[in-house]
Write a structure and sequence with these properties.
This protein is an alpha/beta fold and 236 residues long. The protein folds into two domains: 3-135 and 219-228, Rossmann fold; 144-212, 2-Layer Sandwich (Alpha-Beta Plaits), CATH 3.30.70.260. 32% of the residues lie in helices and 25% in strands. It has helices at 3-25, 39-55, 66-74, 112-120, 153-161, 198-206, and strands at 32-35, 60-63, 88-93, 97-98, 104-105, 122-130, 144-148, 165-169, 185-191, 211-214, 216-217, 223-227, 233-235. The strands form three sheets. It has a six-stranded mixed sheet, with helices on both faces. It has a four-stranded antiparallel sheet with strand order 8-9-7-10. A three-stranded antiparallel sheet has the order 4-5-11, covered by helices on one side. Helix 1 (3-25) crosses helix 2. The chain is globular, with a radius of gyration of 18 Å. It binds ribulose-5-phosphate (5RP). Ribulose-5-phosphate (5RP) binds next to helix 2 and helix 4.
Amino acid sequence: MATNERTARNLEAEGKRTAGVFAANQVETDMVLGLGTGSTVQFALERLAARIRDDGLRIRGVPTSSVTATEARRLEIPLTTLEDDPELDLTIDGADEVDPAKCLIKGGGAALTREKIVAAASQRMLVIVGRNKLVDRLGIDFLLPVEVLTFGFEATRRKIAELGCETYLRQDASGATLVTDNGNWIVDCRFEDGIADPVGLEPRIDAIPGVVECGLFCGLASSIVVGEPDGGVTVL
Ligand code: 5RP
């Protein structure tokens, strides 16, 4: 790897760490949290675990994926469910893209459906990102993930494509079709010039029979915590 690329990756990781640690430091004792998914959330989980261990912080969290659940158990973060705690105080989660209106694309980790349910059950959603995730328009660089039922897949895929995008069925690292924690598939959608109207598009995708959920999150993020490579944060 070239030195410039290595430096850029280190700065990106540092921004994620800064944002994750900042968000975990906002948590107060007795809060019930939504625990998002991804590499930025990992930094928040580690900081929460340290605060539980060292400062006696008392919390419980609803994980948004099997990966986060496994990681939380490893770190000895107490877990709960939306059945036992249907109203959450705060969700901390990452994003793949964030636009100036705080609309998000999520689902890079294929956890978008549980992430949206958990965010919607929370009083506040703190989104933690590095500066590279801020974009003027969603969907130009990152394809929009949509979780779909396997039943009737081709019919559902065609309806999604009729909205004006190219669709790609997501594969896992071994080349097999990726199966989500919910037993569904992910279609990644490329809109030629990005997504001009995310607020309008989100309900149109979600209304297609066979679509479980799309990765547009509009009106859910309370604040965006941008981790800066110099160790500071900007809160939007
Ligand atoms: C998972 C997500 C993640 O929050 C998103 O992909 C960002 O991940 P990372 O923090 O690793 O960049 O939506 O479904």
